[in-house]
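Q: Give me the 3D complex with flavin-adenine dinucleotide.
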Amino acid sequence: MDKGAPNIAILGAGVVGLTVADILQKDLGKANITIIADKFKEDTTSAVAAGIFCPGSSFRGATREITHKWIDDSWYYWQDILKSSEASNAGIMELSTYIFARDNYELTKNPLLEHLVSNYRAAREDELKLCGPGWKYGSYFTTVKIGCDRYLPWVERRFVDKGGRIVSGKVDSFTSLRQYDLVFNCTGLGAKYLCNDFDIFPLRGQVIRVKAPWLKTAFFCDYDTYIIPGMDGVTTLGGVRQHDNSNLQVCKYDAHAIWQQCCEILPDLRKAEIIGHNVGLRPYRVPVRVEPEVIGGVKVVHCYGHGANGVMSSPGTALNAVKIGYDYLKSNIRNKL
Ligand SMILES: Cc1cc2nc3c(=O)[nH]c(=O)nc-3n(C[C@H](O)[C@H](O)[C@H](O)COP(=O)(O)OP(=O)(O)OC[C@H]3O[C@@H](n4cnc5c(N)ncnc54)[C@H](O)[C@@H]3O)c2cc1C
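A: Here is the predicted complex, encoded as structure tokens.
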């Protein structure tokens, strides 16, 4: 531990907390950084996510410009890893994707993504038949997928290898963290209680994971149905978006509906081995909260409430949070930097 360097705590070891830690460590080599969390890796919401880079229309920062910057910064962050020799270890891959709709071409467009990918285009007539009859509108593009089963352990290992500390435990108030010069609050849904924030709520999701090594393309169709292949031949089938539902148990009715809908779209899925069912509570908040606050004398930078897009958008919001934190530290009278 470097006694002259600032002490920084990051609350949360989901994709947001770990990505903040990674960026912070790169920027502030001299700091003592500790991650504190009560859940890690496969026990986090992040591990349930399909992890596709496909921003939803409800994903928002405080302004339109901020939203665009977060998404653009995130895209280039993932592209850098994708182009590196670490891509596979980190679980980052390219993914061809179709969005199909029966009623309206606009539903298949994505204004937050179209300028980033090089090949966003309308689906051709033959492509509209890939998921059975009745699909009148479609778009095609190539995006990235972040597999949290690999990314979380990879980025955690990188953090520890560079001298980061990890502490397991639940934090009940910020005032218990007075020994830190700065605290990043990346607690996802946990912020509801920690910050008494009534603007964040659970958006329940459920998925089925299947072994379908022949699938190389992702599909989004009506009724929130998606089929998203990943590494190791594992495909994620979803899904549901249930507002203000905190039930973490697998619901057999949801599982049945997901299975039927996905098999209707791609009948070959009936041959796939089911590996498991997962439930996660998306930390839904509009806007996502990235801002500073002094709580009981502790300097806090919030970075939570990423809803259905927290995996893909974690680097952009993390870069923003780290910049705020850096300015905070510079204004610190003790200025240890
Ligand atoms: C079914 C499903 C599919 C999804 N698909 C995608 C997708 O394709 N693309 C995408 O970008 N996103 C997707 N998401 C959304 C994504 O999973 C979330 O936005 C993201 O995981 C949020 O990350 P987080 O780090 O904020 O939260 P979490 O992963 O929940 O991590 C929160 C961390 O904070 C800790 N914590 C909380 N409170 C405390 C406390 N008081 N004390 C100590 N530690 C605390 C927890 O232990 C945990 O370590 C999906 C989500 C679901 C459920």
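A quick observation: The mean pLDDT is 95.
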